Amino acid sequence: MNNAKARTTNSFFFGVRAGFVFMLSKNIGLETSVGALGYTTSNLEDEGNNSESDFNSFDFSLNSSNLLVGLSYYF
User: Fold this and answer.
1) 3-state secondary structure (DSSP) of residue 3
2) CA distances in angstroms from 29 to 4, 15, 18, 34, 63, listed in the order given
3) Residue 58, domain extent
4) Straight-line distance from the first to the last Cα atom of the chain, in angstroms, rounded to the nearest whole number
5) How many domains does the chain have?
6) How does DSSP classify residue 4?
7) Which of 19, 43, 60, 61 could form a disulfide with 33 if both were Cys (CB 3.0 to 4.6 A apart)?
């Protein structure tokens, strides 16, 4: 018999990132951004011990682990 209880986490991040766009053509751009300044809120529900926890934090980071690169299409 499986007596495993569910653990659920919900998180939301809202913030801004500094970045650049290099236009490869009229409609395609190569985007890069580093760091973040934002707010995170999380909720953890654990049915195993019947508990709930909330976490809130403000974040500021400029390290390379937050480096994002992407392509975008502009209409």
Assistant:
1) coil
2) 47, 22, 16, 17, 23
3) 7-73
4) 56
5) 1
6) -
7) 19
Q: Quick one: tokens of 62?
A: 């400029």
pLDDT tens for each residue of the chain, 75 residues long: 455 678 899 999 999 988 999 999 999 999 999 888 999 999 999 888 888 999 999 999 887 777 899 999 999
Amino acid of residue 14: F
Q: Is residue 1 part of a domain?
A: no
Long-range contacts made by residues 56-62, C-beta under 8 angstroms, separation at least 24?
Answer: 59/15, 60/35, 60/36, 61/35, 61/36, 62/34, 62/35
- Residue 26, exposed/middle/buried by CB under 10 A (0-12, 13-18, 19+)? exposed
Q: Of 75, 57, 70, 58, nearest to 19 (Cα)? A: 70
